[in-house]
Amino acid sequence: MPFDTPAPAMPLTRTAPSQAIPTLLAEVHRHLPDQASRRAVLARAEEIARGAGRALRGRAARRRMLEHFASTDATTGLLNRRGLRSRLAERLAEARRHNEPGVLIFVDLDSVAAIAGRFGAPGVDAALLMVAEGLRHAVRADDSVGHLGAGSFGVLISRIDHEAALGSAARLAQAIARLTLVFEGEAERLAVSVGLAPFAGNEPAEALLDREVVA
Question: What is the per-residue burial (b if ≥16 Cβ within 10 Å, else e) of 63-98?
């Protein structure tokens, strides 16, 4: 900076965040009476602040991206087990707070072994994608769908009683039963088995994921 003489050191004082900028401006005016010097210092401070803001936004974006990949299944694009467990923990807390039951519906693709035998791993991946899309379109916008591994999926539904959950499970099974996998010119009808794990809010999320009650 084009200072003729070094600016005197400005003592640092601890201030509340809401008073930080006014305090800084007061310090600059007190220690740098020359207007050109003040402008140079404030311009540099603004540049540093903008750079810090960009860096923080970049770190936040990278953190969100890493969290997304950590909770997303690479094959289907659905939540993976970790992501569904996290979403389930949130729903359990809501159920406990508002006294509203919910259900975790397990959806298991019955024909995984047959598909693997006919089409190999690429055919299985195609079937999983088809089931994932079928489940996405069959649930409400605020429901959560996850791929738990192999041919097993989980559908998390809040604010639903047991009778209504049975109806939802039947509709999910029917939605998948309407699908036919066509792979390399051959067709394979898809079918699933469903099971229910109702919750009231007091259950541990991991235990609930491991507790399947056949409908």
Answer: eeeeeeeebbbeebebbbbebbbbbbeebbeebeee
Q: Where in the chain is the domain with CATH 3.30.70.270?
A: 72-214
Using the structure block, give the residue that is written with the tokens 């007061």.
Answer: 26
What is the C-alpha to C-alpha distance for residues 85 and 204, in angstroms, rounded to an integer?
A: 10
In tens digits, the chain (215 residues) has pLDDT values of 444 444 445 454 555 555 666 666 666 666 666 677 667 777 777 777 776 777 667 665 656 554 545 789 999 999 999 999 999 999 999 999 999 999 999 999 998 989 999 999 999 999 999 999 999 999 999 999 999 998 999 999 999 999 999 999 999 999 999 999 999 899 999 999 999 999 999 999 999 998 654 44
Checking DSSP bridges between strand 152-157 and strand 102-109, what pairing results, if any?
antiparallel
Give the global pTM: 0.69
CATH architecture of the domain with range 72-214: 2-Layer Sandwich (3.30)
Please give the C-alpha separations between residue 204 and each of 38, 210, 211, in angstroms, as whole numbers: 59, 10, 11
Angle at 165 between CA 161 and CA 170, to 5 degrees: 160
